[in-house]
Write a structure and sequence with these properties.
Blueprint (H helix, E strand, L loop, with lengths): L7 H23 L11 E5 L6 E4 L4 E4 L3 H10 L4 E6 L5 H12 L3 E6 L12 H5 L3 H14 L9 H7 L1 H7 L4 E3 L14 E5 L3 E5 L5 H4 L14 E6 L1 H15 L1 E2 L5 E2 L13 E5 L2 E8 L11 H9 L5 E6 L5 H12 L3 E6 L1 H4 L5 H5 L24 E3 L11 E5 L3 E5 L5 H5 L3 E7 L1 H16 L2 E2 L3 H14 L5 H4 L5 E2 L5 H4 L7 H13 L16 H7 L3 E2 L1
Parallel strand pairs: 4-5, 5-6, 14-15, 15-16, 21-22
Antiparallel strand pairs: 1-9, 2-3, 4-7, 7-8, 8-9, 10-11, 12-13, 13-19, 14-17, 16-20, 17-18, 18-19
Length: 543
């Protein structure tokens, strides 16, 4: 009971104030801002930008943000000689139409896709449709709603020609390959998202060429699309670096239409970061994957880590996934030096047991009473970690960080082990306060409405695990193991490696008898041994 009686109308006033505060907060989130100055050679755009507004072309709705699709089309329209595109998923018909028009005009167009997305939904047979998983079925239904322009429940050839991006490309005879062209089952993901025009303009984006990534889910009117960014660079030097990566994957096209020398994933040679000066910008570019047999410092995650170490004031991160322990450890060291750390993670991944967001908040979640490898919850947790508040169905798809308000880390590269050692990825480090200001504004927009700290349910789950399991130990301290020499070990010793049983151990021995292994990557000659298994072996295997 209150010490003094409170008039009923005070409660109404109190509720009204709360409502006004929430309304003002929402208005602040959607308030249109003045555009920031753009660097002449490096321009930045966001599909949720508070300084932009456009008419979304497919659902015909006016919405805030920059039209990333139109920026891609405008760049393609400038092409006089070549257009090269490497993107995981391609479903935007207007981009496809722009490419077909350029192809017809004599411009050389090439497209590389992830193999799991190199097939149109129009190709599925009725029998195949019955075998789709619930997630695949939902994606197919979304696809058919988009294609069915007149909403009659039927897909006509004319509708396919207008809306099915892959069919538009194929009917326009645009050359397309995917990451199976090197004869493998494909890299873990051909996750690149870049465009090169006339060996001069380069677009690097976090977005796939899909409605959900750029404009919003077709059947969800409130969706604004996954939060993504796009960087456009005017530089023949940057274009040459990306063209080299593209050509490694493309290989040489022969008269019989096959590609020789096509390389994806770990089949590509080890490459070092390349740095150029461009006007007021210093740009460093690196590509993944890097074999787990190589020093981590030489990988893309290693490059990110070295840049995180340079921060003296602040690190702001907006990440789809953050699961790289070594990067979390570097950030922990930086926090001990009074560097201000803030992080927003996509809600689907923020609170999983492998998420480094938990480390930063001082929380540990185990799996069957085991922590992730080298798990290190921070002794001085921070409360500036959380998840963004987006429209239902939209995801935080960024992969960027801003250091000291002057350095930006961005690209297609998620902060994960898979991106580092399995996927085809690109990461950019851009040193320029003008460019960094754009990413800083986007981070502040997301942070303003973010849900920070450890959710009560996650804290309760962690506490319950401690009661059930006692003190959960890291796998490195709980499990001891011997280092196995792959060229000399017995079958019994080989069988101690993760995923190796008696049969696979014998295959390893037979293969090395034919020719000794020269590197850990060379062990992939053994049927049944792939890069994922090499990653699991970690430091347990040597030559």
């Amino acid at each position: 009971m209150p010490l003094f009686p409170v008039p009923k109308h005070f409660h109404c006033i109190f509720l009204l104030l709360i409502s006004l505060t929430a309304c003002q907060s929402a208005q602040s989130q959607n308030q249109k801002l003045q555009p920031l100055p753009q660097d002449t050679l490096v321009q930045v755009y966001f599909n949720h930008s508070q300084a932009g507004e456009y008419q979304e072309p497919y659902r015909e709705k006016k919405r805030p943000g920059d039209n990333l699709e139109q920026h891609i089309i405008d760049t393609i329209s400038q092409a006089q000689s070549t257009v090269d595109i490497a993107v995981q998923e391609f479903k935007l018909p207007k981009i496809a139409q722009a490419l077909v028009a350029k192809q017809a005009s004599g411009v050389k167009v090439r497209v590389i896709l992830e193999n799991t997305y190199n097939r149109s939904g129009s190709d599925f047979t009725p029998e195949e449709l019955t075998k789709l998983t619930p997630r695949e079925k939902a994606r197919y239904q979304e696809f058919t709603k988009f294609i069915d322009i007149n909403n009659d429940g039927k897909i006509s050839p004319q509708e396919i020609q207008q809306r099915d991006a892959l069919m538009i490309l194929r009917q326009g005879k645009v050359p397309i390959i995917d990451d199976k062209k090197d004869g493998s089952r494909g890299s873990d993901l051909m996750h690149h998202k870049f465009v090169i025009v006339d060996n001069r303009y380069v677009i690097i984006t976090s977005s796939n060429f899909t409605l959900s990534d750029i404009h919003g889910d077709f059947s969800n009117p409130s969706s604004l699309g996954n939060a993504n960014n796009l960087v456009k660079i005017d530089s023949s030097e940057v274009a040459a670096i990306f063209t080299q990566e593209f050509n490694l994957m493309w290989g040489e096209k022969q008269a019989n239409q096959n590609h020789s020398g096509s390389k994806f994933g770990l089949k590509k040679p080890q490459r070092s970061p390349q740095t150029i000066s461009l006007g007021n910008n210093k740009i460093t570019i690196n590509f993944s994957p890097t074999s787990p047999t190589q020093p981590w410092i030489e990988s893309s995650n290693g490059l990110i880590g070295e840049n995180l170490k340079t921060a003296s004031q602040s690190v702001d991160m907006a990440l789809f996934v953050f699961s790289e322990q070594k990067l979390a450890n570097i950030l922990g060291s930086q926090q001990q030096k009074s560097v201000k750390i803030r992080a927003l993670i996509e809600p689907q991944f923020a609170y999983r047991n492998y998420s480094e967001a938990l480390d930063m908040m001082g929380v540990a979640l185990g799996d069957k009473c085991r922590y992730e490898l080298d798990n290190q919850p921070w002794k001085n947790p921070i409360t500036t970690v959380g998840v963004p508040s987006l429209q239902p169905g939209d995801l935080l798809h960024h992969k960027f960080a801003v250091l000291d308000g002057k350095i930006v880390i961005t690209g297609s590269h998620n902060w994960s082990e898979a991106a580092n050692s399995s996927n085809d990825e690109s990461v950019l480090i851009i040193e320029n306060p003008t460019v960094a200001a754009h990413f800083h504004r986007e981070f502040e927009r997301l942070y303003q409405q973010a849900k920070l700290g450890v959710p009560q349910a996650i804290q309760a789950k962690s506490t319950q695990q401690q009661k059930q399991c006692g003190v959960i130990k890291s796998r490195t301290t709980q499990e001891s193991f011997q280092i196995v020499n792959l060229n000399t070990a017995t079958a019994t010793e080989l069988a101690t490696l993760p995923g190796v049983g008696e049969k696979l151990a014998q295959k390893i021995i037979i293969t090395r008898q034919q020719r000794k292994f020269t590197s850990l990557a060379d062990v992939e000659r053994v049927p049944g041994v792939g890069k994922k298994m090499l990653i699991k072996w970690g430091d347990r295997a040597k030559l």
